[in-house]
C-alpha cells in the first residue's frame, strides 16, 4: 500500500491536483502515527488485556475500512493498458478532467513504457 497508493494518486488525479493529493497522502502517515502513539501511551496505564487489545482494535478499524472500500476504486489507466483495455483507459483519463494535450502525453507515455517493459520473445 505504501508504494501503490501514491502511484495510483499520480495516475488518477487531474494535473492541477497531483502534487497536492500525493502530499496529503504522505501526511496521512503522521496523521495516524501520532494518535496511535498517544493511544498506546494512554493504554500503558490500563491493567489487563485491554492495554494491548485497545490499540490493536483501533488500528484494525481503518485497515478494515480500506480492505472493504478498495474494491470501489476504479482500475488505474496503467493497469487497463497492460491488460489491453486501451479504450477504457482513454475513457478514464478523459473522465478525470485532464486537458487534451496532457491526456495524449500520459496515454502514449504509459503505453510506450508498457511496451518497452514487455519481455521479448526469442527467435527459434
Keywords:
mainly alpha, 124 residues, 71% helix
User: Major sheet: size, sense and barrel closure?
Assistant: none
Helix content: over 70%
Uncertain residue ranges: none
Task: Work out the radius of gyration.
Answer: 21 Å
Structural class: mainly alpha
Gap between N and C termini: 41 Å
Please tally the β strands and state the result.
0
Topology:
Elements: H1 4-12, H2 18-42, H3 50-69, H4 77-82, H5 86-95, H6 100-117
Helix pairs in contact: 1-2
Description:
With 124 residues, the chain is an all-alpha fold. The protein has two domains: 1-72, no CATH class; 74-124. The protein has six helices and no strands. The protein starts with a helix and ends in a 7-residue tail after the last helix.
Short note summarizing the structure:
By secondary structure, this protein is an all-alpha fold. 71% of the residues lie in helices and 0% in strands.
